[in-house]
Specification:
By secondary structure, this protein is an alpha+beta fold. It folds into three domains: 370 residues, no CATH class; 77 residues; 143 residues, Immunoglobulin-like, CATH 2.60.40. Helices cover 52% and strands 15% of the residues. It has 24 helices and 13 strands. The chain has a five-stranded mixed sheet, with helices on both faces. Strands 6-7-8-11 form a four-stranded antiparallel sheet. A hairpin with a 6-residue loop joins strand 12 and strand 13. Helix 2 packs parallel to helix 21, helix 4 runs antiparallel to helix 5 and helix 9 packs antiparallel against helix 17.
């Protein structure tokens, strides 16, 4: 209970308060779970149902926070099951507690416990499977035979969640044969475990039941149920091929494993070797889990391989518990018989306890700032506020066309908290498909927006900035709001500034200054880059942004004479600008930095 509560409080304190990523599975889970959409292959139905239940029952925060919370809950439960597993293996209380906490604050484990992801639940299930089979071994040795219902249930839960569980099966089969080979020739003993095994697998029925909702990218309708639960081609793509061009050696994986517990941890693990002789069957099982996971990671060519090593990290923590136990027994023996004065022996025990206690405490302190997803505000709320800004910048019936991750973010915010539900989102990761979708939307007369520059976009359309979005217009027909400050400043022959405005924004992620510029070209121009700088009353540089106009999408060399181009620059601030601050615009050559023009005005004037 202590480990569960300690882990729970640690992860709650550092938990991401909402959506914090765009281009990974976490954002998908934060939308798929509360809407019960189909998660990417293999579907993760057990995870989805449990996370949905936690998200529905938890009364605080948005839907994304509730899904994040399930990761924290699974991680904390895993620590409790780690204690049960290590104690069943014969490790002492002190060594088990220290090893559990070292697992809790491992960089990979901690990072997965504070965000919506499937891997802390996989860590819990790995421990639950090990504990169930070890419990069966103990009961078999005590009574001559024991039921396999609980191991069957545990294995079924693992396979209802993640394919990493498949790596455990050969080791588990050999473990069964070693402990009680008669079980393979007694069919009646398999009835209860088979029923228990199938029970969690029935959660895969969630996929056909939610087929009318489908997956967020729409591919479930194309693949179908069987291909989806088989992995949907993930194994072929990352085992037989190397789409990301990753070159990773076993030594790289060793360094990654070492980073979880440090050289000191590896040294303590080496002290666990005496235990291997005392529990050879269990030692074999753990060694198989660790080795199979490590070998799989050497062949699986994904960028985030560290999360697939969590079963290895769990086993390493169990070895740590035995190593610490061996170390503690050695120090105790030395204190009892190797020191002349009793008080010195007690002192040695106290010093050893302090050293072992300081180790995880120091690592917790050192790693906290990096692992804390609740702070600073820019990290905790930046993605959320960017999505809100995108939606609020689009016309109420507009269409935003962008990458799948970005559109998932907008769809999440349309779902919770229900911002701009009338805005249509279109995901198109392929650039040619995205350009085609933009052209179709503009031809239909829809207010059309995109999120990134595209080859050929500026040549075919006129562009203006709409907050963080790029508004796409028919060529030469761009329109926009009137400027807050009208001016008539000719910065260069053929280029004038017709207006500007500044907006101080204070979202949850922190203050920022948005500067809007209205440009007009009267003749063809070369390509200029624009530097927007916020200066304090004493001309101190407070913030700066340099960019090709319209979010790098609309070079001045492609502006059409006579059209007005609305341009936007956002500058993050540590505090609102003080009175007397000013704006400075600089036009320069992006190839060599040569400056062509400057213009300065007081902020808000």
């Amino acid at each position: 209970m202590f480990l569960f509560l300690g882990g729970w409080l640690l992860y709650l304190a550092t938990l991401a308060p909402t959506v914090v990523t765009i281009f990974d599975d976490s954002l998908e889970l934060q939308l798929a779970v509360p809407t019960l959409a189909i998660i990417h292959p293999t579907g993760y139905p057990l995870y989805e149902l449990l996370a949905w239940l936690v998200q529905r029952l938890w009364p605080v925060g948005d839907a994304a926070y509730g899904v994040n919370l399930f990761s924290a809950l699974a991680a904390a439960l895993a620590l409790a099951w780690f204690y049960l597993t290590a104690r069943r293996l014969g490790a002492g209380v002190g060594g088990t507690v220290v090893a559990a906490w070292l697992l809790a604050i491992g960089p990979v484990w901690w990072s997965q416990a504070t965000i919506a992801e499937v891997y802390t639940f996989q860590g819990f299930l790995t421990l639950f499977i090990l504990w169930a089979f070890l419990r069966w071994e103990d009961e078999t040795r005590a009574h001559g035979a024991a039921s396999l219902a609980l191991p069957g249930l545990a294995l079924g839960m693992g396979l209802a969640h993640h394919r990493l569980t498949l790596l455990m099966i050969p080791g588990l089969v050999l473990f069964l044969a070693w402990v009680d080979p008669r079980v393979f020739w007694q069919p009646r003993r398999w009835v209860a475990p088979l029923v228990a095994f199938v029970l969690p697998l029935s959660t895969y029925m969630l996929l056909p039941l939610r087929s009318h909702v489908g997956s967020l990218d729409g591919t479930y309708a194309q693949m179908g149920f069987w291909k989806w639960i088989a992995g949907g081609g993930y194994g072929t793509a990352f085992l037989r091929e190397n789409p990301f061009g990753i070159h990773r050696t076993p030594l790289d994986l060793f360094h990654l494993a070492r980073d979880q517990y440090g050289w000191l941890g590896l040294g303590v693990i080496a002290l666990s070797l005496p235990w291997w002789r005392r529990r050879p069957r269990a030692a074999w099982l753990l060694a198989w889990v660790a080795l199979a996971d490590f070998l799989f990671a050497t062949m699986y060519k994904v960028q985030d391989i560290q999360v697939f090593l969590i079963p290895l990290f769990v086993v390493m923590a169990l070895w740590l518990a035995w190593g610490l136990d061996t170390l503690g027994q050695g120090v105790a023996a030395l204190a009892r018989g190797g020191i002349r004065f009793p008080w010195a022996g007690h002192g040695l025990l106290v010093v050893a306890a302090l050293v072992i206690g300081v180790w995880p405490a120091r690592l917790t302190w050192v790693r906290w700032p990096e692992q804390d997803r609740s702070q600073p505000p820019a990290r905790a709320w930046g993605v959320h506020d960017l999505g809100l800004d995108m939606l609020e910048s689009a016309a109420p019936r507009g269409r935003v066309i962008g990458l799948l991750g970005e559109m998932t973010l907008l769809r999440y915010l349309q779902f919770d908290p229900g911002i701009q539900p009338g805005v249509e989102t279109v995901a198109a990761d392929d650039e040619s498909l995205r350009l085609e979708a933009i052209a179709t939307s503009v031809a239909q007369g829809r207010a059309t927006y995109t999120t990134h520059p595209l080859p050929g976009l500026a040549e075919s359309f006129s562009l203006t900035a709409a907050g963080p979005l790029i508004r796409v217009w028919p060529a030469g027909r761009a329109q926009g709001p009137a400027p807050g400050h009208e001016v008539d400043v000719w910065l260069l022959p053929g280029l004038r500034l017709t207006g500007w405005d500044d907006i101080l924004r204070v979202p949850a992620s922190g203050p920022s200054l948005r500067v809007l510029l209205w440009w007009q070209a009267t003749q063809p121009l070369p390509s200029y880059k624009i530097s927007v700088r916020l200066l304090g009353p004493d001309d101190t540089l407070l913030a700066q942004q340099d960019a090709i106009p319209v979010h790098h999408a609309y070079p001045t060399s492609l502006w059409r004479p006579g059209e007005t181009v609305l341009d936007t620059y956002d500058m993050a601030l540590s505090a609102p600008p003080p009175p007397g601050s000013s704006l400075l615009l600089i036009l320069y050559d992006p190839s060599d930095g040569h400056e062509y023009a400057r213009w300065r005005t007081g902020l808000g004037e």
